[in-house]
Amino acid sequence: MGVQSVLKPIYDGYAVRHFARQGWGSWPVANRGWYCDVIAMRGTDIAIIEVKSPAEGSVDSNYDDTRGLSSGVRADLPTCYRQRRADICASIQRQPGVSVIKLYAVSVGCQLLRYLREYDERSRRYASVAGPSLGTSASHTLIPYIAVPVELKPQVDTALAFLQQRGDIASYTTVTDCRLCVSKVAYP
User: CB-side exposure of 13: number of CA atoms within 13 Å?
Assistant: First the structure.
């Protein structure tokens, strides 16, 4: 979680508009720290969306993804979660376009999974952005997405295929528009 680029709020806005065109109510979260970038709601589905701008291109392989987690969330995460970021980064060393592929793989394999598991604890903050109808995961289905610049679709496809092959994700589907590649992810 480094310095935010001036492009970040622009790409968050593209994601808000993308989901709105698909019939979702969508809002930028615009909060530093461990929150998704955009949240969207349609019926009983809540989209937890991680957005990457073209200025984002590297990842800290040593960051502790369990930092600040409550004991309840920590118990809900896979036992391998603490080491997952380092494992992903070490495994992708030999891929072309390695920095961006690592970033996207860590974003889905670590960050997005954390946001899903922490949703209930952070739901008040999300409700302050989107309204009280968001509720908890008990009353809604949480759906993780990653949104990246459309020109970086090959890199996100490589990262997601890698995570699927490792068993970190069960499946993914991708749609594109003129600005974004948006991938819906399913965890095992």
Answer: 5
pLDDT tens across 17-46, in order? 999 999 999 999 976 667 899 999 999 999
Residue 108 lies in a domain: yes
Q: The domain containing residue 139 runs over which residues? A: 8-186
Question: What DSSP character marks residue 150?
Answer: G
Q: Both tokens of residue 147? A: 């949104």
Contact status, residue 155 vs residue 97, Cβ threshold 8 Å: yes
Separation between Cα atoms, residue 163 and residue 156, nearest integer Å: 10
Total-model pTM? 0.90
- Structural domain tally of the chain? 1
Residue 142 lies in a domain: yes
Neighbour order of strands in the sheet with 171-176: 25-28, 38-42, 45-51, 141-149, 180-186, 171-176
Backbone angles phi, psi at 68, to 5 degrees: 80, 5
Q: Is 11 exposed, middle or buried (CB count within 10 Å of its CB: 0-12, 13-18, 19+)?
A: buried
Q: In sequence order, which residues have a C-beta less than 8 Å from that of residue 43 and are 6 or more positions away?
A: none
- Which residues, in sequence order, are CB contacts of 56 under 8 Å at separation 6+? 5, 8, 103
